Amino acid sequence: MPQESPHRADALVPERAGGATATTTRAPAPAAAAAPAPASHRGRAKGGRRRTAAPAPAGTSAKSRDAFFDNAKYLAIVLVAMGHSWEPLRDGSRTAAAFYITVYAFHMPAFIIISGYFSRSFDMRKDRLQRLVTGVAVPYILFEVAYTLFKRWADDDPHYPISLTDPWYLTWFLLALFIWRLTTPLWKIVRWPVPLALAIAVLASVSPDIGDDLDLQRVLQFLPFFVIGLSLRPEHFKLVRRKKARILAVPVFAGALVFAYWAAPRMNAAWFYHRDAAQELGAPWWSGAVMTLAMFGCSLVLVACFFAWIPGRTMWCTALGAGTLYGYLLHGFLAKGSRFGNWYDTPWVHTPWGMVLITLFAGTVITVLCTPPVQRAFRWAMEPKMTWAFQKDPVGAARSRN
């Protein structure tokens, strides 16, 4: 069985330890250090004297956070915000459309792969189910209602319905994550999890009757990336972090941008959302299978290139990786508000310098929304403890007392 995840089991939801917000992420301990000593010798030295563990050096922690994944989450969430800022610019700028397509080809797959990677230890244990409820289900409900009320007010649509089964805008990811993580034990027991998940995604892409309930098209079409994350090990990330991989990533991304520039006026960008079947996009049914497989391969290559460029050292932005859920959910109000308020109708926004300023503004806003003050202000919604909602575990209580 995989070790307890050092991060929370997903890319966006903040890390916790024992129900409290964690300031550091746990790295799995080496097997030799984690193995307990035999009961007859544990805690005693020669002569029968009990040994006292040497104190850790000041300012250090026995379990430290992996800066690589925090950096990856922060940089990915910045790309999410920038992608949203480019969306209204695509019609008037082929360059903006090319950047938009390139980013959308890998930013959510990267998040989902990280989510799967840190879901490897998930099972139906009581404390993990509680964290799934408080860290995923409750924020989904709160923000689905909040976004609906915001749309009613900002878009002058007072009758827009509140529906927990039909997520609006960004909240689909939390619903999908809830479903994916519940299925984690199943993917651990099947023999070929990734091919099976990919087959399910292909079938979903040619099945328009699935409908919009629970956003199942996205749940199923993005599923292979989550299952890949479940199948990855630390050594797999080391492969893409080598110098050779970083060098190769440069021409690959350059080629992706060139191809996106060519494809921008010819391709429906809705393929990258994975929320519709091929028939719903006006394409023949067989193209759903072809596009799903082709985009799956392209996304994996670009995700690998993205990971290759992620620094593994602690940087100024590393601590912001713990606040990606905050940035993700909160920036949606500004992104949608800019559309409802017709901010993009201003001519200067569509000039080259305007596009640059919009991009920098989006990156700055998402950075601020990931900071600790914002986390403290919205922790009640993102990370509610809700101890009152769960039955006490007598076994766990007895274990903690001992």
Walk me through this protein's architecture.
- This protein has 402 residues and is an all-alpha fold.
- It has one domain.
- The protein contains 17 helices and two strands.
- The chain has a two-stranded antiparallel ribbon with strand order 1-2.
- A hairpin with a 2-residue loop joins strand 1 and strand 2 (20-21).
- Helix 3 packs across helix 12 (243-263) and helix 8 packs antiparallel against helix 10 (223-231).
- Residues 1-9 and 14-63 have low confidence and may be disordered.
Short key terms for the protein model shown above:
402 residues, mainly alpha, two-stranded antiparallel sheet, 17 helices, 2 strands, 1% strand, globular, disordered N terminus, Acyl_transf_3_dom, Acyltransferase 3 domain-containing protein
